[in-house]
Design goal:
The complex is a heterodimer. Chain A is built from 16 helices and twelve strands. By secondary structure, chain A is an alpha/beta fold. Chain A is globular, with a radius of gyration of 24 Å. Chain A starts with a helix and ends with a helix. A five-stranded mixed β-sheet of chain B has the order 4-5-6-7-8, with helices on one face. Classes of the chains: A alpha/beta, B alpha/beta.
Chain lengths: 422, 303
């Protein structure tokens, strides 16, 4: 029995690991009845795998049997992999026992589709219901809704889960019809809209009545696979933007495509596009926390993110006319746009300058990365950058290769690979 | 005439209250205390009571004696400590005050004088100083408090409980700083229905929750107590199974194509590995699941 459960765990964790979502934050579940666990506020990353990704939740599939044949997916029907399926009790037992030992923040439950979407979804709901009601488990639960599952089951899942998600996976309808012929965009967007409306309605009810059970209180998220199909970064961030605006998503995850099956429809890649993925995350952050609009970062003339430099620096280099910015007088919003100044240092600058005039040394101590920032800011005459006199290429080269530049070993490595390939 | 709305950055911080502080006119002293936070607060109270600034403030046990001066030792006075602690709220909010306690727990070599300088600056400033990042002491307090927060957060993540046969969940830690007092609330809230003990092996004390309350506990034979004592007690019969399953899980969620050991170690520094079950030697060799197999005849049969 023990060996069997170990084999199942290895197969079903292995098959779930390509889902990038790891967050366990934003929950509002308190432990009020002396039960087990809580999921309030910030999440905790309990461990990190050797690829540097965090382990926060027990991320598993209920089964990797699947009736679909999506080209990018390791569990596709035609892939010759070992198959396994957990029972409801096995998942519950693993979750509770991992949680009690402080290994995890909770459960991330997804599944391949066996027999029918509703049959699968019903099992997922049974697991989370059992955890919540029989075991008084208040840890974090993220449930992946199964494409095509009925509205009632999704609604019920939302009562027990902190987060629901529907993965879009392929960033365009064309790619979806080519690579995942059994799926369609409508089937993905309908439950997404349903979850959005459920969350909004739940919030309204909560404002009116005292005792209303929560519905997916940590919101919903989705994932896009990057590099399995031909979309430009512009298409991807436009899609992301519409998901944040139109569907109120909490997070969009980007998963650099890793070749898991051989298929003529898929690109032949040797390395997952980790730098591109990283630049997309930086862009995502610029849109959510730095007040940038999607079309400020990319436009049809520049449809791809610069792999060598971060998107904020790239924006600043294209918009040199708005610099230099004087940190002693400029608005917070403008200070946020200086390359090398993060949200934390921007807040500190605005707070500290009430007490004293800031100079370059103070900025360094506040945590500003002067290597990049020095080209774009001034401290009331103390430091005069020469941004106006330098061309875009000159600044770029100085930042990348000039004195004190430390290029990430990873960037160098990947760009070298590009150079070899072309 | 309507007042002109000034930009956000130019708005002066709120300036209420201010009791101020007496000038420290008496000759400075070398203070010693018993090493507790209440003891330090008593010293601070004394500084303003006697108007004698500190040359140094040191725990009595480790005080460096000097040829020329007699240290002024202060016994902890609960009432004076409480007055000092409550009085701090007149010049700072409770968050800033909590930071001072965190600085104390950081075990930084300069912590006592740093706390004194910060308090003195706050007492004498007409405005709230907690965001005055232009001041080196304010930055240092922020920095140490942030380091404490990180260490606390790491311990909330890296504690690994082992279940014993008498249903106790036990963990050993060796944090860089004295974080046990700060993690008590988190673990009490989270594991309300199991008895647990978290033992700081470096500082020889622990936190114990008995299903009703969490207490700081010490063991009679402090030196003798170590992880071996616990492993000598009988573990729950399913404990090795879950440890093994956790290791299996840890190995299989890794994506070898994305290997990045530098990032791995940045998030999970080597010094914490000692007590992480997923970082212990495996009983069995890791066998990867072979995912990437070209669709062959076997698959055609499935369709």
């Amino acid at each position: 029995m023990n060996e069997r459960i170990q084999e199942k765990l290895s197969i079903l964790a292995d098959a779930a690991k390509y889902d990038a979502s790891c967050s366990s934050s934003g929950g509002k579940r308190k432990n009020e009845s002396k039960g087990l666990g809580n999921a309030e506020g910030m999440g905790i990353c309990h461990s990190y795998t050797e690829d540097g990704r965090c382990v926060s939740l027990l991320k598993i599939l209920l089964t990797n049997h699947c009736i679909f044949d999506c080209a990018y997916c390791v569990s596709r029907r035609s892939n010759d992999v070992k198959r396994a399926a957990f029972t409801v009790d096995e998942v519950v037992d693993l979750t509770i026992n991992f949680y009690r030992r402080n290994y995890i923040e909770g459960l991330f439950l997804s599944s391949g589709i066996f027999s029918s979407p509703d049959y699968t979804m019903e099992r997922l709901v049974r697991i989370v219901k059992k955890l919540r009601t029989e075991h008084k488990f208040n840890g974090y639960i993220h449930v992946k809704t199964i494409p095509g599952a009925s509205e009632e089951l999704i609604q019920e899942a939302g009562l027990y889960a902190d987060r629901l998600s529907v993965n879009i996976e392929l960033p365009s309808e064309l790619a979806l019809t080519t690579l995942a012929p059994e799926k369609n965009y409508q089937e993905i967007l309908t439950p997404m809209a349903q979850i959005r409306d459920g969350i909004i309605q739940n919030k309204e009810e909560k404002a009116l009545f005292k005792k209303v059970p929560g519905f997916a209180t940590a919101g919903q998220s989705t994932q896009l696979i990057v590099g399995a199909s031909a979309e430009t970064d512009l298409q991807i961030i436009k899609l992301t933007d519409s998901l944040y605006q139109g569907y109120g998503l909490k997070r969009v995850y980007y998963s650099g495509y890793i070749p898991v099956t051989d298929d003529a429809r898929l690109p032949q890649v040797t390395q997952p596009p980790v730098i591109r993925e990283h630049r997309l995350y930086q862009t995502d952050w610029l849109m959510r926390f730095y007040g940038f609009q999607a079309d400020e970062i990319l436009d049809p003339a520049h449809p791809h993110l610069d792999l060598e430099i971060d998107p904020k620096l790239a924006w600043a280099l294209r918009n040199r006319h708005v610099f230099p910015v004087d940190v002693n007088v400029a608005d917070y919003e403008m200070i946020l746009r200086i390359p090398g100044v993060g949200a934390r240092s921007a807040k500190r600058i605005v707070a500290a300058r009430r007490f004293a005039r800031l100079n370059m040394e103070t900025l360094r101590q506040l945590g500003v990365v002067l290597k990049r920032a020095k080209y774009f800011l001034t401290c009331q005459g103390e430091h005069q950058p020469i941004i106006g006199e330098l061309s875009e290429q000159q600044v770029r080269r100085q930042i990348l290769f000039g004195a004190g530049s430390v290029r990430s070993a990873l960037v160098t490595q990947q760009l070298d690979l590009f150079a070899q390939a072309s | 005439m309507k007042p002109v709305r000034r930009p956000f950055s130019a708005v002066a911080p709120a300036a209420p209250r201010r009791p101020g502080a007496p000038a420290l006119t008496a000759p400075p002293l070398d203070y010693t205390y018993d090493g507790t936070f209440e003891g330090l607060l008593t010293v601070l109270f004394t500084v303003y009571d006697w108007r004698a600034a500190p040359n140094s403030i040191q725990p009595e046990a480790t005080a460096q004696s000097s040829l020329f001066t007699q240290p002024a030792h202060r016994e902890t006075d609960e009432a004076q400590a409480a007055r000092m602690w409550d009085g701090l709220l007149k010049t700072m909010d409770s968050e800033a005050r909590a930071r001072l306690y965190h600085v104390f727990l950081s075990e930084d070599a300069d912590r006592e004088l740093l706390i004194f300088r910060y308090v003195d600056l706050a007492l004498r400033s007409p405005v709230d100083i907690s965001e005055n990042y232009a001041n080196a002491d304010v930055r240092r307090v922020q920095r140490l408090a942030q380091m404490m927060f990180r260490e606390k957060h790491r311990m909330e993540a890296f504690v690994r409980f082992e279940k014993t046969s008498d249903e106790l969940f036990h963990a050993t830690i060796e944090p860089d700083m004295d974080v046990l007092p700060l993690i008590a609330a988190h673990f009490t809230k989270r594991y309300a229905d199991q008895r647990w003990l978290i033992y700081d092996r470096r500082r020889h004390y622990g936190l114990y929750y008995d299903l009703t309350r969490t207490d700081i506990v010490q063991f009679e034979n402090q030196k003798g107590r170590n992880a071996a004592d616990i492993s000598a007690t009988v573990l729950d019969e399913r404990e090795p199974l879950f440890r093994h399953l956790w290791q299996t899980y840890f190995d299989h969620v890794n994506i070898p194509e994305r290997k990045n050991l530098k990032l791995h170690r940045r998030h999970m520094p080597l010094r914490y590995w000692k007590y992480l079950s997923e970082k212990q030697p495996r009983e069995q060799r890791f066998v990867p699941i072979n995912n990437k197999r070209p669709p062959g005849e076997a698959n055609l049969r499935l369709k």
